[in-house]
Amino acid sequence: MKKYAKQSRLLVAVDCIIFGFDGFKLKVLLVKRSFEPEKDKWSLMGGFVGPQESPENAASRVLTQLTGLKDVYMEQMRVFGNPDRDPIERTISITYFALIDIHKYEKQIDEQQYHAEWFSLKEIPSLIFDHKQMIEHGKLNLRYKASLHPILFELLPDKFTLTQVIDLFEQVFDVLLDKRNFNRKLSSTKLLVKQKDKDKMHSKKGAYYYKLNKKIYKDKFGAFLNFISNPKIG
Amino acid sequence: MKKYAKQSRLLVAVDCIIFGFDGFKLKVLLVKRSFEPEKDKWSLMGGFVGPQESPENAASRVLTQLTGLKDVYMEQMRVFGNPDRDPIERTISITYFALIDIHKYEKQIDEQQYHAEWFSLKEIPSLIFDHKQMIEHGKLNLRYKASLHPILFELLPDKFTLTQVIDLFEQVFDVLLDKRNFNRKLSSTKLLVKQKDKDKMHSKKGAYYYKLNKKIYKDKFGAFLNFISNPKIG
After folding, report:
1. CATH of domain B151-223
2. CB contact under 8 A, A92 and B232
3. DSSP letters along B43-73, please?
């Protein structure tokens, strides 16, 4: 076991990137860091991995401690391992990624002692270390997932307007969409089922609500890979 | 900095999952472990991350040391962090993933002092620790990537037969394909350009060679997400 004895041991941390959509804006959850260095600066929800703890368990523990959020399904994203990313001591950070419905968790978050807050992706404050880069990577991951799975529609409320769909896609993919063209394409997919009622809160004329036809959506997603029926891709 | 002082430091390793296709079989590269515990057992190419080394650099260094492979683009996959995955001392392992053309690197690998060998995915020997699980995850990752990007066709030689395409897809997605149906679908995509010459090595009648129409392939891949032109997804 000599080989082991000679190695360096490193600090290992987790950082959680929690994205949410509130019906208007794509947001990310941040918290004020509670210890030095960079105390009181905005940061992702992070902490060290304990000796008997898996990184997954560490991520859940940290998220609950700092925000009150429980039972959030987080998936591992990537490791940030630049040797000088933490000025005090080398720390490898494993990032975790989740998408949540902001309104569903509003109350849980508000009751916490730490100051956790949602920030629009366009208005992220200055962050500690490489956390901005982590969020950037989280956004790419979101696009990647959104290209394979119906996750963006799942971020929307049960019924939603076309404006909300466009807003969400524009923010996730960082593009300005031609609304007419987008609506035409969307309508041709038959993914959305027009409802009878309208949202009258945000315009005089009102905007029809839509619901997702989940079956068609799922089938559509398989279509580009229709060589293989129902590939297991994770 | 008290918070830092109290934490545990952990061993951090990298393990490299190198997939290749030799025209017939999807394979993974393994090496005989050179130190205890489990010396001389088959293993992925792995090693510890040095104090001043990024995990990416460690992965490249380890791969070159053990197999001679240089300039292989590897992407980070996931962390295996179960507290008892290594029986000697807790070690977090960051896995890296690459797809290579086996024939292109044949010579590099043969010249090395360590015994590296390609194994068909169907015939993987007993492996150390959780390396089998790592390969399983690598396979899921391969499917995931293959659903978004033209990577499977890139594993094929410049010209290839339909049998090779089917073999590759069957092995990656672990399915038995209806060959006629698959060929019909494939032909309708216009992805492949039939060549004038035939492979006569593997059947009397011979099988026509095909080449990939990369432009159509790329366009097709965007099609399922045609709301957004050229989304940047990583």
Report:
1. 1.10.10.10
2. no
3. E-EEEEPPTT--HHHHHHHHHHHHH---S--
Strands A26-32 and A116-120, sheet pairing: antiparallel
Q: What are phi and psi of B195, to 5 degrees?
A: -95, 170
Chain B from 120 to 159: CB within 8 A of any A CB: 140-141, 143-144, 147-148
Cα–Cα distance measured from residue A218 to residue A215, given in angstroms and rounded to the nearest whole number: 5
Give tens-digit pLDDT for B2-44.
889 999 999 999 999 999 988 889 999 999 998 889 999 999 9
Best residue in A173, A182, A226 for a mutation probing chain B (most B CBs within 10 Å): A173
Q: Domain B11-148 carries which CATH code?
A: 3.90.79.10
Q: Which H or E run contains B11?
A: strand B9-21
Q: Which residues pair with A120 in a beta bridge?
A: A27
pLDDT in tens, A103-154: 877 777 766 677 899 999 989 999 999 999 999 999 998 887 776 666 787 7
Cα separation of B28 and B138, whole Å? 10
Domain boundaries, chain B: 11-148, 151-223
